[in-house]
Amino acid sequence: MTASTASDELKASTCLEEMGEPQSQAVGQLNPKVFDYTPAQTKRLLRKIDLRLLPMLTILYVLSFMDRSNIGNARVAGMNDELQLTGSQYNIALTVFFFPYSLFEVPSNIVLKLMRPSWWISILVVSFGTVLTLQGIVKDYEGLLITRIFLGVAEAGFFPAATYLLTTWYCRWEYQTRVGIFFSAASLAGSFSGLLAFGIQHMDGVAGLGGWRWIFILEGILTVVIGVSVPWVLPDSPETCSFLTEHEKAYIQYRLSQDAGTATGQVATHDKFQWRYVKELLLDYKIYLGIIMYWGNSICIYAFSFAAPNIISQLGYSAANAQLLTIPIYFLGALVTYFFSKMADKHRTRWVFVVLPFCISGIGFIALLAIPHPALPGLTYAFLFCIPAGLYPAVIGCISWIGNNLAGPWKRAIGMGFLMTAGNLGGAIGANIFLDEQAPSYQLGYGLSLGVDLAGIIAALVLRFLILRVNKKRAAMPEEEVRARYSDDELLAMGDKSPFFKYVT
């Protein structure tokens, strides 16, 4: 063996270790172009991608989550009084958002695959910013319902598009950290929304409009302005971006193609739509267990987001102070979400970082059910911190887990859209469980949230058991036997059904 050959093998081994591949993989299977990438160089390349993708996705998700949940801030600022809404009408206004929001997620991800992602995301952001602005000039309950329905249509595609877009850039054990960074924006959105609402509601009377109207109008205009810039800021794919060299683009594509979890497996990075992907998804138990885990988040967190300012105001604080006191709750949620996401990728497992966060939120719900409301307002406020701190990391673990275990671009795009379609229907339930007549105890709200929280834990444990069993069976299959039955093209087309594909646990 020559010195240069030995050096190439060492570099190839180091590259594979960075990708999570066993070092025993035959060097001859590697593309020679990747031999000169060390772990340090790979890390620098990923940081380069992070700086182009994550800031914009984070800003957009802050706007998205803020625009759908700031109705809770508007309620505290006087919306219900001016529009003469009853408690049930307010809950219906929350509920109608979720039906179009859920139903349009899969179609949106199909459109995402057919056009430039940055242009589609820009269209979505400008659309929901425009609808939110119009929500600030509604005159009655019916007008509020119409704008909430169209807000659901416009917002439907952003989150599944953003989470799918990241799978086209990052390998499986790099993915959750990146999703965690921009999803932490959901918590930051709660903080930012409360802070903005605190300031904006003091515009009450400006141009003859109530302060709650200015919350919608100004936040909507901000969303539109930022949405217009998306096509010039957000890169579409490793193949078409302008900030990577040709060598770097090839390396990113190579890493993704090798990300099957085994030395012999590969996954497709490009494919054509086939109806069999839809059939496979409808028969895939992983999706349905993922939906249960997703409900463990969506039912609870939407209920909490809409009710939190009101819950805090009932502890004896003014409306303005209630807005401010939501900020530290969501800020902690953002920090914990990033921490758990980082740990999940570092330890190369998903289930622990779904179950443990659900346990944190479960403790919070148990405590809030046990506290004799309205006594002990300080203790009530303290346990509110457990809710986003547990629920946000859990749903990120769920999305990453299911996304990691769907192979083939079309199957993953449709599968993630379907997961969120069914999962986000939980928001329609969450919008109706904190009932005014049960204030301040909210037995239904806290009790149902605890129940679906526990269901999420059980679903995670069942999924882990099932995929461990599949992985064990696949590991026992001799490679020679598999290759005798299937060609390389057939194995590639099988995606995550390939005997060489190892599921993430």
Automatic annotation (TrEMBL):
Keyword terms, alphabetized: Membrane, Transmembrane, Transmembrane helix, Transport
InterPro entries: MFS, MFS_dom, MFS_trans_sf
Gene3D superfamilies, per database record: MFS general substrate transporter like domains
Transmembrane residue ranges: 53-71, 91-112, 119-138, 144-167, 179-200, 212-234, 287-308, 320-340, 352-372, 378-402, 414-434, 446-467
Every Major facilitator superfamily (MFS) profile domain range: 53-474
GO-annotated cellular components: membrane
Entry's localization field: Membrane
Statement: the UniProt record of this protein carries the keyword Transport: yes
Pfam family, one: MFS_1
Main location: membrane
Membrane topology: Multi-pass membrane protein
Molecular function via GO: transmembrane transporter activity
Name of protein: Major facilitator superfamily (MFS) profile domain-containing protein
